[in-house]
Design brief:
This protein is an alpha/beta fold and 247 residues long. The protein is 26% helix and 21% strand. The protein has five helices and 13 strands. The structure holds fe (ii) ion (2 copies).
Amino acid sequence: MSLFALGDLHLHFQAELKNRAQLTDRAWKDRERIFRENCLRLIHDDDTLVLVGDHSWGRNLEECRQDLAYIAALPGRKILIRGNHDMFWDAKKTAALNQRFAGQLAFLQGNFYAYQDYALVGTKGYTFEGPFYVDSRRRIVDWDREAEAHAEKIVARELNRLQASFQAARAAGYQKYILFLHYPPTNILQTDSCFTALAEEYGAEQVIYAHCHGESRFHDSILGEKNGVKYSLVSGDYRHWLPMKVL
Ligand SMILES: [Fe+2]
Ligand SMILES: [Fe+2]
C-alpha cells in the first residue's frame, strides 16, 4: 500500500484553451498519456493518489466531465485538492461533490481522509503572489500593498479550513498527519507562514504542494526539510508527470 501525489494536470478534454501559451511548452505535451501510463505502472488498486489541484480548465462540472472521468479511471483511490483554476468546485459545496462522486473521487477541503494511521489533511491554501516591483538587478524593492491586504483575507479563510481539517482528524484520534495544499506554503518573500506554523504545531510529517509550474517558479517556496517537516513540490511539469511517492 502506497501514497502518491501530483498536481496541476490542467486537463481540457472539453474546455477550450485560450491564451495559455505556457501549457503548450514541451514539458506539457502529451501529459495526459504520459501521466496515465506512469500511474498504470506505479499505482495499484489499494494505493492512494492525491491530486493537488488545478485539475481542469472547465468552467463548470459539465465542462469538466471528461477530465474528471479521466481522473476517476486512474488506478487506486483518488483524493482531490481544490486549485485556483478549479471553477467546477464551489468551496462551499465540497460535501455535495463528495456525495455526487462517492466511490469514484474524494474531495479534500477542511475534512480529512485516513491513510493507514495517518490523517491526510488539506485545503487550497493561498499566498500573496505580487505584483512585486524589482530594481534593475531584479531584486524585489516593493510590492502592491492593496493586493497584499486582499491576499491576507484569503489566507485567513484558508487557514480556517486547514484548522478544521486538523481538528477533525485529531478529534477522530489521529496523531500523524500529511498536509496537502495547492498553493505553496510560503511566497518568495517569506521563510515561514501561518501554514508552516500549523504544520509544525500539529507535527505534520510532510507538506505537499503544487501550483508552481514553469521552471522559473520551482524554487518559489520551501523544498526539503525545515523544522522537522518535509516540504515537496509536486507540480506535474516539475515531476515530469511522475507521481511522487509520499509514503
Ligand atoms: Fe496550475
Ligand atoms: Fe494553481
